[in-house]
Amino acid sequence: LLQSLTEEGRNHPLAEYISIQTDLPERALIMGRAQDLSRAIRNILDNAIKYVREKFGTEKGGEISVSLSHQEGWWILQIEDNGIGISQETAAFIFERFRRGDSHRARGQWGSGGYGLGLAIAKRILTAHGGNIALVTANGEKTLFEIKLPTQKN
Fold this sequence. Notes:
By secondary structure, the chain is α+β, with helices and mostly antiparallel strands.
């Protein structure tokens, strides 16, 4: 699932100048509906692509990393990018429906407009699967989302 989503990301029309690196185990069993989990993860990855493209345009230097590790009964998926970042003010409501970030994030040149639903949908899906999502880093230079999903159904 993660391999195909990252490959899909690499083929995204806006990802032409973006390096997408992965650190994924060969095999990882994650319990849940593949279609729903794909949608949640795709929302995060698509945002990363849009906002990296917003920062770098057609210049090289944009990077996204996707990694999966196992810790104490949880799969930890981290998606990090070096795009335009998220302000601390925006971070406070980033998972709320119909809420958008700073005006320059909301009206991007590279198709980064939207309705403010992607992260809210991702959070709802991940919570329904017994997991969660957190914005770990939002410092204006790097953005790191961390998704936790149980290794077994609780």
